[in-house]
Structures are given as structure tokens and as C-alpha cells.
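[Meeting: bench + compute handoff]

Bench side (C.D.) handed over the final construct sequence. Compute side (W.E.) agreed to return the predicted structure before the next meeting so the bench team could plan truncations. Sequence as handed over:
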Amino acid sequence: MKDQPSPIRETDDDARKLARVLLRSARHAALAVLDPETGFPFASRVLLATDIDGVPVILVSRLSAHTKALANDPRASLLTGEPGKGDPLAYGRLTTQCLVEPVERGHAFHERIRTRFLERHDKAKLYIDFPDFLFFRLNPKQASLNGGFGRAYRLEGNDLIIQSPANEAIAATAADAVRDLVERHPDVAERLATRLKAPESGSWRICGIDPAGFDIISGDFLLRYEFETLAVDSDHICSNISKIAYSIP
């Protein structure tokens, strides 16, 4: 009997880019943890954001079942990728296996993560500072990408992380840089939405930048754009955004 060909394709740059977009453009995800009492997988839905290095971030209550499970075993999986019309299996999805890291108040990353999370989930301001809520960074270790029928890939955790020496400097200046950009070009987000063929919605705004790209949001819609090369600072990011928004097609 002949060996069956592997269904896993060789991972290329297009696959890596699709995986990053599926992870970084998700506003929510299915989170799977291991129940500490039974050992069975336990799945729930969580709101999702990303840190400046592309690592996914969740905000959870200490009282929830998945938080108690993560305190016992830091292994978790995220499923991201939204289906559209027709067969849901024809659309890309990404399963990311992670090791979680709690980010308590006072942690060096806490304020940055809080700010980035609220940029995506403004309604979370109603409970984000409750004492029983905390953030987790979900550090990717490996991932499985299904880009649609016949397009399966395996990725390493580093394929999903923004490995740039500029991460911290960009995080420190991101809010001011975006504010200055919008003051100079009040219509920049709407121009980006038009250029990127965003769904028709209310007003769009830039809700996050990092060395690898930017995010725009309108209501329940979020679009992620990935640069061809990593930006070196916030001015470089805003220059890239302006070129995308205002260049002649």
C-alpha cells in the first residue's frame, strides 16, 4: 500500500501572513483550556486584543472556569477566523497553542495592554478595572493554519510574534503618533477603509499600530493590514499609513 501524501503543505510567507492576520484581526476567539478537576478540554469565548509584539491578550474574571484552569495549567489554545456565507469550512482559521502569562496591575506591560485592549473593546471600560479581572498574554508556541480546503500548514510560535527591537519605543509613542496623524488628516481612517475595501459601516478609526502593521475598527468590524517590512518607529508607521490612504491606486 502506497504512503498517503501529507495533507500539510510547506509553510511559506503567504501562509505566515494569513496566520498573522487571522490572529491579529480577531476581536474574539474560542479559548480551550484543561479542566483541573476532570482533565477534559473546556472551551469558552473570550475577547481578544494583541500586545505591541503581536502576542494575543485576553481579559478574564478570576471567578471564571477558564481562569481557574489556567492557574492550574498554563497551556491553552485559541481558535480564530470568521466564516462567511456558504460552507464555514471554506474559510481560513487558525488554532494557536499557547502558554499563558498573567499580567497583574503593577506589571510593566499592564498599562500598555489596558490601553490597547480598550482601543478594540471600548465597552470593557465598564469592568476592566474591577479587582477580580486580570489580563493574560498568550505566548504562541505553535499553530495550525487551515486556509481553506487543501491548504493546511504548521507554524512555529515565532512566526506569529513581531520580533523587532523597536517594539517598546513604538509602544511608548503610538498614541501620540496616531493622534498627530489624525489631526493632520481627519479623514485618514475613512480613506484607509475605502482603500482596503472594508465593509460598509459607520465611521472608522485607527485602533492600533505596531511595527508590523495597523488595525482599523468600526463597530463590530476590524481590519488588519500587514506591512511588507517592519517599521522602525512610529513616524515610519504613520508614513506608511499615509501612503496607503492617499496614494493614487
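W.E. noted at the follow-up: Residues 190 and 204 are 6 Å apart (CA to CA). C.D. will use this when planning the next construct.
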